[in-house]
Design goal:
This protein has a six-stranded mixed sheet, with helices on both faces. It is α+β, with helices and mostly antiparallel strands. The two termini are 47 Å apart. The chain has two domains: 215 residues, P-loop containing nucleotide triphosphate hydrolases (Rossmann fold); 125 residues, RNA polymerase II/Efflux pump adaptor protein, barrel-sandwich hybrid domain (OB fold (Dihydrolipoamide Acetyltransferase, E2P), Beta Barrel), CATH 2.40.50.100. 24% of the residues lie in helices and 32% in strands. It is built from nine helices and 20 strands. It is elongated and about 75 Å long.
């Protein structure tokens, strides 16, 4: 389906699948995206997650047709659109800046693209899109009369009304406050389920990606480090980057000293840590293992050794951060340095204090083993540019060329 083929009724049109084959984008002096292979099934909510400069926004711009790839192919619904102009692709984008026309009413904003293509029932379709985002009652107002969250939903309605095969979301909730952002996360997921389109959401917000997406791909230095359901990525990270970027992790390195039928034991600077084989990427040599902070328990005395539980200590609490629903403790160990523990606030009287001596323990089944060392490999690219930095660099290069001429 193209942007020119707008059905006469209903939003439950299935989106198209997206396939990236060896997608590469090089700028002068650095590579933003390197040999990216990715398939997103039709009708899914997919999140591309990563820090600034990882290449996620460049990937989105390549898919939208706003950048030309250096190598590779882009297929939407099985059709190669690599050399197709942006306006000819069955794609719409919702940006962080909503870019609504301030002089037009909300209804006219949503119907604008349809009217330009001379769609006869443009206003009816616009009303339908506004009803989907529960804003049909404000169709006569101007954008400045709406809140940020309402403007975000109008921008979404304007994109959906065109029935794109693929909807690209570029940090669309970044300008909203925390409470509204969480509300919109749920609403966006509900809307995606209702319209049945393929959503590709680009974000650096881990919670946002895990809340909304069916599948999350964690991107680092132009490549995908790991991809899968949110729970799988969180509970079983494969690399130290994923373990530290997607939430927080306590990581330890050591030699594997024994392996049984179900578990392995590593010696981390004299402390024995057991990890299930099914939750470890490597089972021999020098490995890195970890545990999430909320899986760790604090003890005021050394707990008795027991099967199925790792014990570490003593250490000393060096920082306490109260966040309402939980308390974050920083526990400094003589060998391992600062470790993090999250404790649910079930009782204010049971809180530990700064300076307390404590021991840590966690269930063996909660530990995981990584495919790399904590230090990781050397960076693939020296530069760390996001799209805005690319634009600045391009302008500087052009100015330098003009001065040279």
């Amino acid at each position: 389906m193209t942007n020119h083929d707008v059905p006469q009724g209903g939003f439950a049109e299935a989106g198209a699948d997206l396939e990236l084959v060896g997608l590469t984008k090089r700028f002068p002096g650095f590579t933003a995206v390197e040999g990216l292979d990715l398939t997103i099934p039709a009708g899914s909510f997919f999140a591309l997650l990563g820090p600034s400069g990882c290449g996620k926004t460049t990937t989105l711009r390549l898919i939208a047709g706003l950048e030309e790839p250096t190598a590779g192919r882009i297929l939407i619904g099985g059709k190669d659109v690599t050399t197709t102009k942006a306006y000819q692709r069955p794609v719409n984008t919702v940006f962080q800046s909503y870019a609504l026309f301030p002089h037009m009413s909300i209804l006219d904003n949503v119907a604008f693209g349809l009217k330009r293509r001379a769609i006869k029932n443009a206003e009816n379709l616009a009303h339908e899109a506004l009803r989907l985002v529960e804003l049909d009652h404000v169709g006569g107002r101007k954008p400045t009369q709406l809140s940020g969250g309402q403007q975000q939903r109008v921008a979404l309605a304007r994109a959906i009304v065109n029935r794109p095969a693929l909807l690209l979301l570029d940090e669309p909730l970044g300008a909203l406050d925390l409470k509204l952002r969480r509300q919109m996360q749920i609403e966006l997921k509900d809307i995606q389920s209702d319209v049945g389109l393929t959503f590709l959401h680009v974000t650096h917000d881990q919670e946002e990606a895990m809340t909304m997406a069916d599948t999350v791909a964690v991107m680092n230095k132009g490549r995908i480090e790991q991809m899968g359901p949110p729970q799988e990525l969180y509970e079983l990270p494969r690399t130290s980057f994923v373990a530290k970027f997607l939430g927080q992790s306590n990581l330890f390195s050591g030699e594997v000293t024994s392996v049984s039928r179900t578990a392995m034991v590593i010696d981390a600077s004299g402390t024995k840590i057991e990890v299930p084989l099914a939750r470890a990427q490597r089972h021999t040599g020098h490995v890195t293992v970890g545990v999430r902070p909320e899986k760790v328990s604090l003890h005021v005395a050394a707990p008795e050794a027991s099967a199925g539980r790792n014990v570490m200590g003593p250490g000393r609490i060096t920082d306490v951060s109260f966040s309402g629903v939980s308390t974050q403790y920083e526990v400094t160990m003589p060998v391992f340095g600062a470790l993090t523990v999250f404790a649910q606030n079930t009782s204010i009287s049971s809180m530990h204090r700064d300076g307390d001596e404590v021991w840590l323990s966690w269930a063996v089944d909660h530990a995981f083993g990584l495919a790399d060392d904590t230090d990781g490999a050397s960076p693939r690219f020296d530069a760390d540019f996001d799209t805005s930095m690319i634009a600045v660099q391009s302008r500087k290069n052009l100015e330098a060329e003009l001065e040279g001429a």
